[in-house]
User: Fold this.
Amino acid sequence: MNSIHLQQTLPEVFAERNAIDSEVWHKDIAFVKNEIYLIEADSGTGKSSLCNFIYGYRKDYQGIISFDEKNIKTLPIKQWVDLRKHSISMLFQDLRLFTELTAVENIQLKNNLTGYKSKKEIITFFEALGIPDKLNNKVGKLSFGQQQRVAFIRALCQPFDFIFLDEPISHLDDSNGEIMGELLSAEARKQGAGIIVTSIGKQISLAYSKTLKL
Assistant:
């Protein structure tokens, strides 16, 4: 997949508003591979909705979202499964981890679908982010910042053309945020992938190609 194209896209819940001041909603805009985008947003402007629309979890929007100019509302379930396995990786704001499983078990659930990363590579991610001692701890016992790092590692454990990160460092210190940025940039370069980050204030340090106000 080479592009994600939004054409006059707007959450249905916003349809009755008198005016929409946005560089994303109700615009014609495309995200392309090898570029890095920052979407700055205020609370309540629909950044998490945007992620859910593009990932196919929700369809309550007007307009068109296309992958390589194919309307995603027409995609069959089988194609969505393939896209989520090979083309789109997502780090949701609410993380969506399985709290009763250990950190490494959460990673393995994703990685076992494609065998994309070796066990050694996964452990290296944990070491780089300062949580190697949390590998076998249940996620429900970890702090939210530690959980963010686990969810981030999981997002890297698949091939992707685009990776979305919804407020990925909201509970991380600057040092871990910088490390996350370095790991993310390296992985995206290796795959020639596009990166799309949302933020309501705290931003992961990346060489952004374009900044958009949601």
Observations:
- The chain has a mean pLDDT of 95.
- The radius of gyration is 17 Å.
